[in-house]
Specification:
Length: about 280
């Protein structure tokens, strides 16, 4: 019998209630569920399914994402990892014989995966440390957001999809579809020049990510402006705001700290592959 039991989207709000109990420690899985409940196009794109070990909410979640090129996992245990660890060892749903990306890996999940390596005949091939920065939804909006001269803000448009995709460090054969989905659901924020060229942008998928400014337009305050604009939009819609920043990417970390974000911990983007 399969040990990971699928939780239907109609029950995700109940899972959110559990993640809300230890706040903001579990803000990331809370926002993951929140975003996929609000934007089913993302759920369809990622083919995301949410499971609980033995069907018990108190054991946390294992989210499985299947895109065109790989199977990705997001795991958030509650209380302890013992039930999840046993389910990961016995489940038939996860293709351990293929390379897998484990997103947003907490220290406890990393330790769990390390313990499972010999049993599952896998090894950790790479991990990248990422800081989690958080702004509460009750924070007041920024009142000093002044549009730079000869610019305007809009959504990403189809003719600029390839540009945005090309600047993403994790570009793949599938990633342009990801940005297209964000674009179609109003989850992109772009600062344009008066002649309609993108100057800076940031995207949202439950967390703010892919902040980028075109190199020849850096040091003009454009990245800070579009970030503030996006944050104000999210706060005005009643959302907590979370940002991920890679450990080595110091400038964005400093920017989000300047904007009032608290660093609430770190996670890893972890890659495992069969031995």
């Amino acid at each position: 019998m399969e040990s990971l039991i699928q939780i239907e989207p109609s029950n995700w709000a109940q899972l959110q209630d559990i993640f809300r109990e230890n706040w903001p420690r579990y803000v990331v899985p809370y926002m993951l569920l929140d975003t996929h409940m609000k934007y089913p196009d993302l759920t369809k794109l990622f083919q995301l399914k949410v499971y609980c070990p033995y069907g018990q909410f108190s054991n946390g979640i294992v989210a499985i994402l299947n895109n065109e090129t790989s199977q990705d996992l997001i795991m958030y245990p509650l209380n302890d990892t013992s039930a999840m660890e046993e389910c990961l060892r016995t489940t038939k749903l996860i293709k351990w014989d293929k390379p897998i990306e484990i997103q947003s890996t907490t220290e406890e999940v990393l330790q769990m995966i390390t313990r499972l390596c010999s049993k599952l005949k896998i090894e950790i091939s790479e991990k990248e440390k990422v800081f989690t920065q958080y702004l509460d939804k009750d924070t007041g909006i920024f009142t000093d957001v002044k549009l730079p001269e000869d610019t305007y803000v809009g959504q990403l448009v189809p003719k600029h999809l390839s540009l945005v995709d090309s600047t993403w460090p994790y570009k793949s054969s599938w990633s342009q579809n990801f940005f297209k989905c964000l674009m179609n659901n109003g989850l992109t924020y772009v600062l344009y020049s008066s002649d309609h060229e993108p100057l800076a942008w940031i995207t949202y998928e439950g967390v703010l990510t892919h902040l980028y400014c075109v190199p020849e337009h850096r040091n003009k305050g454009y990245a800070e402006f579009i970030t503030k604009h996006a944050i104000n939009s999210l706060l005005q819609s009643g959302k907590h705001v979370v940002a991920y920043n890679v450990e080595t990417n110091v400038k964005p970390q400093k920017l989000f700290s300047k904007l009032g974000f608290k660093t609430i911990g770190h996670v890893y983007w972890t890659f495992v592959e069969p031995k």
